[in-house]
User: Fold these one by one.
Assistant:
Number 1:
Amino acid sequence: MRLSRSFVPTLKETPAEAQIVSHRLMLRAGLVRQTAAGIYAWLPAGFRVLQNIAAIVRAEQDAAGAQELLMPTIQPAELWRESGRYDDYGKEMLRLNDRHERDLVYGPTNEEMITDLFRQSVKSYRELPQIVYHIQWKFRDEVRPRFGVMRGREFLMKDAYSFDLDYEGAVVSYRRMMLAYMRTFRRMGLKAIPMQAESGPIGGNMSHEFIILAPTGESEVFYDAAFEEIDYSASGFDIFSPEDLARFVGLMTTHYAATDEKHEPGTWEKLAPERQRRGRGIEVGHIFYFGTKYSAAMGFTVAGADGRPVAPEMGSYGIGVSRLVGAVIEASHDEAGIIWPDAVAPFRAAILNLRQGDGTCDRLCEEIYAKLGLAALYDDREERAGVKFADADLMGHPWQIIVGPRGAAAGTVELKRRAGGERQELSLDSALARVL
Ligand code: ATP
Ligand code: MG
């Protein structure tokens, strides 16, 4: 993209309404704009980040054998009456009427809808297990939308649903999602710690929240220093091997990790003081086993091997795709701006033309831009070098290719790595080889 013709409205001033750094930087870097309380428009650069994050989530769900589909945002209230949640959900649920006075809701989640879809078509034990997911907008009328996209009212979520014949199968699905989640967050440059979460009336330890450590997080967290040393890439585990999954989940859950809601001071105090870590965290994902809660309430059974009806065991698995954009920035920034991890950056590189209008500089920049295409943001504005440097640092591109008159005459550019800040004078070809 050419910055002179791009809708990337950067701000010099810090917007007064933003309380945390990711919100400030998302507004200043021109990624999003609020259109109503807790509702955001994703501008071109921000939308690219959102798409990159969604692509990583999708790739890891697919690799775990989950099937992507797309359910609507609008749901009939009838399904929610069947599960009993129409009244329970309260004011967080946005309720609507169509012209025929039918009750509808804007989906805050999709357990009812997916159970209904399965109940219509899945009839035999032979068709299970299955995991399906979608990446779709949700609406929750949060009491206090805040922190930008971190706690919005409209937000993008990946939600997956598993259907198994029995408890043992459901455990395998749950573990598979836990491994997929650790790989997903790792690819975004994040270290997420699975922490035991409230699992409601069903009990057991089959609910985990995935927490990114950040001083601005909404939850207080307590964890064992062992998490500072674990292999977050979670390599060496076969996601389709139940034995590997058991081993992996064992590794993730033997050390103490809890949010304030589930914190047990008694257990915590037994941990050696030098291993006790306390901090704040952002919840970026949540996995949940709930047995036959929805299948039983909504009359969904399949014929078991002996012909008798069985209510499938279910779980649901959420990732806050839009919240992750903020979470990545919370984890990766400095005083000058965002530092995008390569995997989620809106552009791999910015091309900074320090003397727009100078024939040699313009020609070299155009050549680089032609080679990099959409991977680059070409700062072709008639602006001072200082403004271009500041905006490139603010927007956080992993690489800056700096083209000035002296280097351009000699066919060289300066290459800056945003993380770390090293600059190197290189020939055009070696600079491009580093960037691509
Ligand atoms: P929270 O405790 O933060 O309200 P939740 O328990 O209500 O989250 P889930 O229903 O488990 O959230 O939703 C799955 C994921 O969706 C969460 O882990 C979070 O990353 C994201 N999410 C939930 N609510 C919001 C929101 N209001 N804005 C942005 N993302 C959200
Ligand atoms: Mg919530």
Note: The chain has a mean pLDDT of 95.
Number 2:
Amino acid sequence: MPIILGLESSCDETAAALVASDRTILAHRLAGQEAAHGPYGGVVPEIAARAHVEALIPLVKAALADAKLSLADVDAIAATAGPGLIGGVMVGLVTGKALAHAAGKPLIAVNHLEGHALSPRLADPSLEFPYLLLLVSGGHCQLLEVRGVGDYRRLATTIDDAAGEAFDKTAKLLGLGIPGGPKVEALAAQGDPRTVPLPRPLVGSGEPHFSFAGLKSAVMRAVESGQWVDADIAASFQQAVIDCLVDRTKRALNAMTDRPTALVVAGGVAANAGVRGALEGLAAQHELRFVAPPLWLCTDNAAMIGWAGAERFALGLVDDLAVAARPRWPLDPSAETVRGAGVKA
Ligand code: KG4
Ligand code: ZN
């Protein structure tokens, strides 16, 4: 049974994992960089790239030791080749190339977004194509029809900020630090979501896309007004994001011609309990299955990269060692570029 070594380094998590094609996660290791970026209030690309250089090989060694395997036991090496912060992506991809060359194994250049998009199939063997995926991370907010491995139709994207970015900026405005999403969620649990009047950009609109920039500005004005307690701002903000995500997903469901097998959510923001609960309710209204990976598989990790590698390996999709790192790499190349969308991973 094929075993894939997965490497992830596109943002601020360095990770290595060993995943078998029967979905057994033989090992997964991860090193975050919060301490290094904390003083700057956000991810600093140069610091991230240097931290990946230091962390990646020790994590690969640790994962192999956890699984009691050597590189010779691995069938292929899957590394994130984009999109993301290019310094970090290059560290992971070049490490993957070097390991593949030294061990004489095939390299699989994985699109980080495909890692998120296929992660629900690692968690749930019964999840079949096609499914409607809400991919919500720090750099992306997209609705995708996932038709097969490497076969995606983008139905919507953000015209400005991603949902995770809005969480991170709200955390910064409230002085919560990083990682922003979980800190806003924890504070929101102590607040009342009905207190602070905040906009829901594009809700009810006939156009398919998302927008969060106006919400972010409104949060800034609410903080500056000194009129509200922080927990109420956090709770009201989170509810506004949830309302936007649900409304836009509902629109996509109504516009789809082929009925999906499930409504699926993935990416860092999918770790949010309020987001998961609201989407589960929407799926129930449409009599659809709802699938969300476990929390640790929602945020960046290497198991999802190893799994995307396993799916590609099974189809014979391996890459040449000359493959390039790509700071931008849309899952649906035919989708038109939308202003401001998809800048980060
Ligand atoms: O997928 P991910 O780990 O990295 C990217 O590929 O961007 O997503 C990170 C994003 C960050 O913006 C973070 O604030 C957000 O996911 N996030 C959350 C939660 N956990 C992570 N947002 C809301 N609630 C959470 N519990
Ligand atoms: Zn990600």
Note: The pocket of zinc ion (ligand 2) is lined by residues 112, 116, 137, 267, 300, 345 (CB under 6 Å).
Number 3:
Amino acid sequence: MAIQTVSTTPFSDQKPGTSGLRKQVTVFQQPHYLENFVQSIFDSLDGYQGQTLVVGGDGRFYNRQAIQIILKMAAANGFGKALVGQAGIFSTPAVSCVIRKYGAFGGIVLSASHNPGGPDGDFGIKYNTENGGPAPEKVTDAIFDRSKVIDQYQILDVEDVNLDRIGPTSLGNMTVEVLDAVNDYAALMETLFDFEQIRQLLTSGKFTMCMDSLHAVTGPYAKAIFEGLLGAAQGTVQNGEPLEDFGGGHPDPNLVYAHDLVKVMFAANAPSFGAASDGDGDRNMILGNNFFVTPSDSLAVLAANATLVPGYRSGITGVARSMPTSQAVDRVAEKLGIDCYETPTGWKFFGNLLDADKATLCGEESFGTGSNHVREKDGLWAVLFWLNILAVKGESVETIVKDHWATYGRNYYSRHDFEGVDSAVANDLMAGVRSQLPSLQGQPLGSYTVAYADDFSYTDPIDNSVSKNQGIRIGFTDGSRIVFRLSGTGTQGATLRLYVESYEPDATKHDIDTQEALAPLIQLADQVAKIKELTGFEQPTVIT
Ligand code: VG1
Ligand code: CO
């Protein structure tokens, strides 16, 4: 066995963001770039000799090459076994499922999620720990610190592994076991949901569904589960062939990028139910016939109806949402008498709460929902959860959401993204807002009164770790809020995110257009942050 020790020099830009290290493919293709990061991961870990590593990705361009490099490095560094999805494919929630099921030491997920792929697109890598979840900040900080001083890495000088043939092969002293990418995940879903009842719904002839996999990783999973196990009509899954460049699209399930699905679901004879997932399968968008469910409302509806679903029949212990996510779920928690946690953006902050059983359901406004069944957000899980609720209730998506609003009040909510802003301008803008915070406290602003104005800081209730500067929030006395954050997943320039929320208890006022309902707050946000003036953007790039 030929272990090579290769000399290298550090790259200064290997700081993981909201969800791992994301860069343009061309950056990852630089000699030693991926290798440095992978060795930095291994160097930051203890006790993995002879242990199992799970490796898989969303199938985007460079996935296969990266996996070969990672396997040869894992073998050279002393891992005993690697579990890899067939063809190098695993959705992000499937990696989490496999790490937990087989008691692996950890896993490496290759994805840039919702970012475009292809030779000119993006690539990404992140490390997940033994609980199946994204590494917490203390681990990603250690990886970054190591990457700044790394001077060598270990790699095996051997032939590539056949990733298409299921079963074991030897790679030096390590065994590579190629697994069916779908089986373990699908089996887990069967333990959580009433597949028989969902099958009856999908084959009743009265209910139609359209699932858009956006040419990304969920295609094979969705076909196996919906069209296979649950008997939905062939063709229920559209854009179901994973492509290395996602067909040139932006694999982000929202009303802008999932345009094929939006066309189907907002047509005259639309199906009863529509859903989409992102590049790596951890996000979901839920649609009814001519009806869009905001992700924040989706989380609240799932929490309110959880006991209708077998996996959650005995109730949920608590819920958690990222800070910018609307407070709709808070109202459900209050009624259920359970705790609601507010965390920084990014799934890694839910891990401790889930491990400690303080939260059962978690969600983010960015089309992410999940539960304690794995430690990642999970797109198809959310779709199945909705299907199970629809099957039990026998009502439309729209009726369920509107009844929910009538019971709990409606949290009008929207996110405005300004993509490709000059980084210096974005930092100045944020600094400008930050400097106003002390003087805003208690002051009138437009027709509102500021209740609090701060830079969100989070203390993890389990390990007491503190995460500062997680978004600037200005809250008003009537419960409405505006929040400003810079994205931590982009690869070029900066993306400014503006999150706007208001609360309307009166059911006669629940049919207002969202942007109209939020217009006064949107205007105030521009006044405070001078978005148009500083960025030169007349409109946001994406509104969700
Ligand atoms: C975005 C979302 C965040 C999500 C993250 C990863 O981060 O806002 O809620 O956790 O993407 O999602 P940011 O820093 O760009 O706002 V995914 O589907 O990339 O794993
Ligand atoms: Co994703």
Note: The pocket of cobalt (II) ion (ligand 2) is lined by residues 113-114, 278-280, 282-283 (CB under 6 Å).
